[in-house]
Amino acid sequence: MKKLIIPILLLMACNTNHDGRYTNHTQGQFSITDDTLEVRDTLIIEHTGFQRIRNGVTRPKEYKTKQLFELHPQFNGNQLILNNTTYEKL
Length: 90
Fold this sequence. Notes:
The protein is mostly beta strands. It has one helix at 2-14, and strands at residues 20-27, 31-40, 43-54, 57-58, 62-68, 74-76, 79-82, 85-89. The radius of gyration is 18 Å and the shape is elongated.
């Protein structure tokens, strides 16, 4: 019985829960983007708000939502890295 306690404790310590909300803000020459990722088990929901910039004029904010499946994000402390984009956990 005692031999099982240490492996069980190690498995419990390795099981990290990354559920939560992660955000990213990006600004470039042609747009301003605010992304929020909701991480729930194996599902990631991406909420994006963006404003196009045309001829120096910022357009009204537009929104998109999509569900992302079968992705393998990397987690580094309170950061999520997905497709070379880093998101900070709220």
